[in-house]
Amino acid sequence: MKKNYDVIIAGGGLAGLTAAIHLSQHFKVLVIDPDTYPRHKMCGEYLSMEVDSYLKSLGIHINDLSQVTINNFRFTRGSQSIKTATLPLGGIGVSRYSLDLELYNKAKEKTDFLLDRISDITLNHNHYEVITTDQKLTARQVIIATGKRSLLDKKLARPFIQKKSPWLAVKMHYKFKMPNDIVELHAFKGGYAGLSKIENGNVNLCYLVNYESFKEYKDINAFNKEVLTQNIALKEFFKVAVPIWEKPITISQISFEQKQPVEGKLLMIGDTAGLIHPLCGNGMAMAIHSAQIASKYVTQYLQDEITRDQMLIKYSKSWRKTFSSRLLYGRWLQKVLLHKKLTTLSYWFLERLPFLLPIIIKKTHGKEIQP
């Protein structure tokens, strides 16, 4: 394999693969990731249509992957009545198993892939030296897209990685009859769960829970039975839903602490730059959008239109302008949702002012990305 690249991308999830497809149109790109495709990933698997035009410009047609078109949102807490709203722009129900594979197949047309992990990155004058398990590589620019948390976060001494996080995420696919056109959010004690249909007709259940609420139960099945079923909608779901996998995917120590989009002259994209609370249902689109923003400025830098420092400043400003308010609203919504009295009060307001729910949803979604 080659040793010298224009761009090396650490991580081959949504953000890393999107950046690879975009940048490999004009530059030599390498993606380094320790896992093979296809693969299941922790995700709500609802993709906002705000990224549709941009993905089409890269040769990715998401409507060919899934016919599950989602335009409506439904919300419950405990035994309280169901609230519904229309989603701005709408979305697609598509699994990470299918979407990541589609992006990978497109990326590998022009991108090199290395099945490995990066152990060290050093900036040496005008290029980076990248060390993996058994390779020493160079690149003009490195992009970090390693997801929610990784060993590179520790290597870079990022502040969020130093703190313990109380959040545990659980994901499982089920056989369950559910309308195509709706995504659901159901709150329970200590957390909340999302339900959405995916391309093969199965339903994705993905939930986030505070570890303090979870630890008194023996296992996930016991927690589902004793806690999730206290929610009126989840109770009905678990009566008939049949799990597809032998066991669920779980991730602990999920951090929603504020992160920086640039660390040590490295561009952070996707969840590596900032993780929106899953209740907002916009993480997949944000990952793809962040890759588009980064690719724009990396292209300008590699074409000698701007300096590296200008690239870093422009990306950081653009990232914050695009995502900061969404992340702020996400933090605020999670605090409300997990506080019983505040949620009860919110229900009272929504009963009397139903137009507020679409406004709140819109605050966590973006406008359509222009290629």
Automatic annotation (TrEMBL):
Its EC number is 3.8.1.1. Keywords: Hydrolase. GO terms for cellular component: membrane. Gene3D superfamilies: FAD/NAD(P)-binding domain. InterPro entries: FAD/NAD-bd_sf (IPR036188), FAD/NAD-binding_dom (IPR023753), Geranylgeranyl_reductase (IPR050407), Squalene_epoxidase (IPR013698). GO terms for molecular function: flavin adenine dinucleotide binding; hydrolase activity; squalene monooxygenase activity. Residues 258-317 form the Squalene epoxidase domain. The keyword Hydrolase applies. The keyword NADP does not apply. This is Probable alkylhalidase homolog. Residues 5-150 form the FAD/NAD(P)-binding domain. It holds the Pfam family SE. It comes from the Bacteria.
